[in-house]
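Q&A log
Question type: sequence-to-structure
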Amino acid sequence: MHGTGVLELLGALGLVLARARPAAGWCLAALFVCLLPANVHAARAFRIPEQLTYVAVAVTASRSHARRPLR
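Response status: OK
Response body:
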């Protein structure tokens, strides 16, 4: 996980340097394409259940507020 972050930062640095910009752009594009399946998996495996928890907490909080005011 940290390795991909390092590659992204190096790619960002490459985009700032005019001589490295073309190579950095293509390398970043390839990196993002390679990471796409892992990002989709992470979103499906972790983010969706997490989001459902947030929805449940928000609904519960709104219902408890209707019954008794917060102080």
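Response note: The mean pLDDT is 88.
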